[in-house]
Amino acid sequence: TGSGLIVSFGEMLIDFVPTVSGVSLAEAPGFVKAPGGAPANVAIAVSRLGGKASFVGKLGDDEFGRMLAGILEQYGVDGRGINFDQGARTALAFVTLRNDGEREFMFYRNPSADMLLRPDELNVELIRSAKVFHYGSISLIVEPCRSAHLKAMEVARDAGALLSYDPNLRLPLWPSPEEAREQIMSIWDKADVIKVSDVELEFLTKSDKIDDASALSLWHPNLKLLLVTLGDHGCRYYTKNFHGAVEAFHVKTVDTTGAGDAFVGALLCKVVDDQSILEDEARLRSVLKFANACGAITTTKKGAIPALPTEAEVVTLLKA
Ligand code: ADP
């Protein structure tokens, strides 16, 4: 695990999940709090693996915001990039997987504090010290968060950081699919490393084919690495000079939440001090095996954050 700073930009929120599985939100007898938000999960994944992580984003100055800041601190994530909004509240989501297999969402975001992060509030000095800048806020579409997002990317890029992007498509949050596609593609060519899931690949290419041609149709000239994660089928990787696939690990999966974030965190931990990995297929494959193992372990426990593994746990699975 590298020692360079990995800054993750975006939102942290609380998912309220029914205490019993399979019910609709209206039928839930009660809820448990599951802290999350993909960018925050990535920061914690890095820290769990022994890397140096900062989270940049805005929380409400309320009970939930303080709870989330406390969780970041507890996991060793540097909080100098956190702002608290004096007016708006922390984002909340109510999420359930019903017995009919449909996911049901309800969001408190009208607007929530994360959407109100302003460019002038950014800890520019902190962002400048990043070796890797990871982004992919679901609030990309709303001002002032959008401008803050773009400014942070520019500051990091000018300071020489590697830029990593995960679109984290959450369709229900977008006004329309067209707008989601357009906004995601508007920041596509700024990234050096992009990770999409199979679902995102289908969405962005408007095709139900998940093959090399569809992945490569998303290639841009400055890209160093494109990754497609395929759940229990592992991942595919594409660079200028080579491409291939790395198999998943067989584990007892109970909840896949956070697997993609664990995967990204693991990858970033390995490339932060040595970007030459991106040009060496054998070394890249070994890093992706590590990232797959990290994702697999995350699926063996409920929730995202409590399931993120330490490096020792990943090494144990690699040796098994
Ligand atoms: P996302 O959360 O972005 O949709 P995936 O679910 O594809 O991403 O998970 C990311 C990685 O975690 C996969 O590439 C794979 O290596 C690992 N993973 C995910 N689900 C499983 C599973 N059921 N069994 C084993 N590994 C998994």
From TrEMBL:
Domain Carbohydrate kinase PfkB residue range list: 5-310
GO molecular function: ATP binding; fructokinase activity
GO biological process: fructose metabolic process
Reactions catalysed, as given in the entry: D-fructose + ATP = D-fructose 6-phosphate + ADP + H(+)
EC identifiers of the protein: 2.7.1.4
UniProt keywords, alphabetically: ATP-binding, Carbohydrate metabolism, Kinase, Nucleotide-binding, Transferase
Pathway(s) served: Glycan biosynthesis; starch biosynthesis
InterPro entries: Carboh/pur_kinase_PfkB_CS, PfkB_Carbo_kinase, PfkB_dom, Ribo/fructo_kinase, Ribokinase-like
Record bears the keyword Heme: no
GO CC list: cytosol
Signal sequence annotation: none
Record-stated family: Belongs to the carbohydrate kinase PfkB family.
Role played: May play an important role in maintaining the flux of carbon towards starch formation.
Protein name: fructokinase
Organism of this sequence: Carpinus fangiana
